[in-house]
Amino acid sequence: MTQTFENKIALVTGAARGIGRATALMLRDRGARVVASDISETVHELSGNGIVTLTGSIAEEETALRSVALARYTFGGLDILVNNAGRTMNRPLIDMTVEDWDGIMAINARGTFLHAREAVRAMIKGDGGVIVNVASIVAQVAMKDTAVYAASKGAIAQLTKVIAVEYGGRGIRANAVAPGVIETDILEGIVQDSRATLASYGSAHPLGRVGQPHEIAEIIAFLGSSASSFMTGTLVTADGGFTAL
Ligand SMILES: NC(=O)c1ccc[n+]([C@@H]2O[C@H](COP(=O)([O-])OP(=O)(O)OC[C@H]3O[C@@H](n4cnc5c(N)ncnc54)[C@H](O)[C@@H]3O)[C@@H](O)[C@H]2O)c1
Question: How large is the angle between the packed helices 111-123 and 147-167, nearest 10 degrees?
Answer without folding.
Answer: 10
